[in-house]
Specification:
Strand order of the largest sheet: 1-2-3-4-5-6-7-8-9-10-11-12-13-14-15-16
Oligomer: single chain
Radius of gyration: 22 Å
Number of helices: 8
Helix content: 10-25%
Largest sheet: 16 strands, antiparallel, barrel
Length: 461
Amino acid sequence: MNTCQNSLISSWFTALARPPRWVALIALAWLGIPTLASAVPSYARQTQQPCVACHVGGFGPELTQFGRQFKLMGYTMKVGEQTDVPLSAMLVESFTHTQKAQPEAPANGFGTNNNTELQQASAFLAGRLSEHIGVFAQATYSENGGLLGWDNMDWRYARMFSHGSHSGIWGISLNNNPTVSDVFNTAPAWKYPYMSADLAPGAPAQPMLLGGLAAQVVGVSAYMQLDGAWYMELGGYRSLSPAFLRSVNGHFDGRLSGVTPYARLAYTWNLPTGSVSLGGFMLNMRRGQVGTNAAGDAVALPGPTDRFRDFGIDASYMYIKDDHAITVDGLYVHENQRLDATYGGGGSDHLRNSLQSLNLKASYWYRHTYGVTLATFVDNGSKDATLYGNDGSPNTQGESIELGYSPFGQSNSWAQPWANVRLGLEYTYFNRFSGRVHNIDGAGRNASDNNTLYFYVWLAI
């Protein structure tokens, strides 16, 4: 690639990363027409298929094989000549109880325990825009914080191709969260739990691939599915400006240095009743601290950065036949850190640290209506008292069980394809929290004091 091409690409990424303020306002207005969700009835209306065609359990975001192909084709599959405005909405009302009241309220306006919350109220622009262009874009309001802001965004251009004995799909995704473009539910943006308590304690640290850049960046990735088996994706991400992120009520955790590369590779064995997939992820990023300039930023003086190199492996199994559906997913991510900015500013004890995360889950659904999910999670890492407090360990692990009920989503369901709902009851048990089993903080709390009972009603229209 010559110098001129490099300059053009750099300028293009810079323009994407620093859109003018009016673009942010239009984005909010566009998305606001009447954090983890993709079960939108506008897709069902477009394809004239029931929700169970695309989603395990009759409700998103866990995708069937058909659902994966629909996403790979850029959300453009359509049946009939009718023209529907591709709009949907979602509401999530929840209740959260921890085994022991938290030392402080988890957020303004809430108590230390037994909290009810309008957890999400979202509007979606989701569907086909032209023969080869489609979109999934979400704006979300949460009672926790009281703000309407942008959420996951995935604009796609996709086409089919054939060459000799090979055929497949290729496409381009413009999105704001590495892995949101992925079609597997092992991907960090779509992994289990699909809905979880935001008013309960969680892991103190996880690798950046697990949402560390969500809704703070803009990126372009090119992907291809070959012969229904290989899936390949390669992309790059740049920071959005703090001014733009303020306009859309997004977070800003520091500016990325240059373009952050992202890569994905997976292989799927298609079976008569399902599939088996095996794959991997890569993310390599450098980021400055808030209030400093990242090294290599063309419009600012150089400054120290923290470097994060993430490598992940994932595997999934899906079995769907008659009234029964079984899915098993696993994801392991290892992150190496070199914290020049944080360590240099006295924010960590060590220059080099590491984090590891393991997530496993298995689900069974009967008639895509009654479901049970068992899951386990382990987050480990280097000890660093300045970063993590307490005894300096981020190690957190536990298990969860969830009972789900999706009364609609079938071809003959009430209000199909205009409405769907899921009820969920989830219990999370902690064996270890922030490094310790007992007395994990100054309040003398045990790990099990953070055990969480969580109930939600999830409505999509």
